[in-house]
Amino acid sequence: MKRIDCPWCGPRAENEFTWGGEAHIVRPGLSCGDGQWRDYLFTRSNPRGAHQERWCHTYGCAQWFHVARDTLTHRIERVYAIDEGPVDATG
Amino acid sequence: MGIANALQNSALGLAWHALRGHRHWRPFWRTPEPRASYDVVIVGGGGHGLATAHALATKHGVRSVAVLEKGWLGGGNTGRNTTIVRSNYLATPSARFYDHSLKVYEGLSRALDYNVMFIPRGVVNLATSRFQLRTMRRRVEALRLAGVDSEMLDVEAIRALMPRLQIRSTAGCEVFGGFIQRRAGIARHDAVAWGYARAADRAGVDIIQNCEVTGFERNGDEIRSVQTSCGRIGVDKVAICVAGHSSVLAEKLGLRLPITSMALQAMVSEPIKPVLDVVLDGGFYVSQSDRGELVMGGGTDVYTSYAQRSGLQRVEDNMAALVDLFPSFARLRFMRQWAGIIDLTPDSSPIIDAIGNVALSCGWGSWGFKAIPAGGECLAHLIATGKPHPLAEAFSLERFTTGALIDEAGSSGGMDDREPLL
Lengths: 91, 422
Description:
The complex is a heterodimer of chains A (91) and B (422).
Chain A: E1 3-6, E2 10-13, E3 18-22, H1 34-41, E4 50-56, E5 64-70, E6 76-80
Antiparallel strand pairs in A: 1-2, 3-4, 4-5, 5-6
Chain B: H1 2-8, H2 11-19, E1 37-43, H3 47-59, E2 65-68, E3 84-85, H4 92-106, H5 108-112, E4 123-127, H6 130-145, E5 151-153, H7 155-161, E6 177-181, E7 185-186, H8 189-202, E8 206-208, E9 213-219, E10 222-228, E11 231-240, H9 246-252, E12 260-269, E13 279-281, E14 285-288, E15 294-304, H10 312-325, E16 334-344, E17 351-355, E18 358-362, H11 372-385, H12 399-402
Parallel strand pairs in B: 1-2, 1-11, 2-8, 4-13, 11-18
Antiparallel strand pairs in B: 3-7, 4-6, 5-6, 9-10, 10-11, 12-15, 12-16, 14-15, 17-18
């Protein structure tokens, strides 16, 4: 089982967490077109490799945070705060 | 040639080969070198790619077709799924589409002259709450209106179908009822890939294995050639049938899709004598194979993945469900577990659509195997005529812009299994 390093509680087992999907998706303004709204709701980068995503420590502190994770190796590269912007995926 | 083909799969042929010491069987399909160009290049040699090639060659008279497979035939999700074939989907477009697929499955062995071992042993879903029983009744009635066989089962009928099932579990769950689709069942997954491959090959399709597509060359809006590990291949039209890797190939085409790739696990027990006649389906599903193994699976892993391996959490979840439903299976040993990468859409329904001269068949999620015959027919129809097949009109990419989603309860992870939040 994967161990995830919660920024508040430290390393915990995967089944305490909820995966929240791709991070850093910006909600468009109310005047946006249908295409932009579709992209916001449904279109995802879904890469094979480096991915930045949101996780929640549901059965712990219940805090949301960001994780940079590789979708091919499942290796977690970095855990960072929910208010931090996208990280350089190569770093 | 004709006689040798006719002899391949008959009792007479078997006797003939036996007399000659089984030394003269021919390979089921050729291993051709790729030609410089094709009318249609299909990327992905799984069930959908092969069924599409077969339909193009036999129904639409398109003879210059190649199927490019980066690994071996049917080595992806076609060879990894739990082989359930059913059409008990809630939404009418889905019910019609999957029921057509099931009807083709019923006659597929004869159509392909290859035994795909389709066995309509019945697929049962259980309700473990009164709420679930109500949504199930709605699903059954919707199915009957769509012309799909489906009937509610009371607890006694379920007990008769599955004597080993524990109606009131030690973990506090209780079975309140269920429903069955009697025409549904299981088929042999490898045989479906091999049968379609052999029939397509005989119709003139070039099947090229160990050939990975690495890029596309375009001229204006059209794709003019495919770059592969076997060299450059010119194309008139391209079809993408790569399941969990759809987003990766789409990116090479400059497209972004409403798809998320996740690992779906399956596992089998040691073989035992027949104990389970029907297929038990739902959030957790189990059936007994012809070899006697219990074949089972459950939900996807909870995060995106391109690793074709299993996370331990789902193994534990599936084991817990199995032992809670059938306590006597607790003593079984498990032989193998594996995972496939599935392509999930937000509404649990597929995408069969074209952009320029690229045809896309994706979003099959955990329900791709049962869809193989219909998916192949519909994609071939789209490629050959330029128009969507009547059965696949609802499965456009456009629906994510217009909002005409088909929120499908019949798929794994669909509405049906969700409990109310209150």
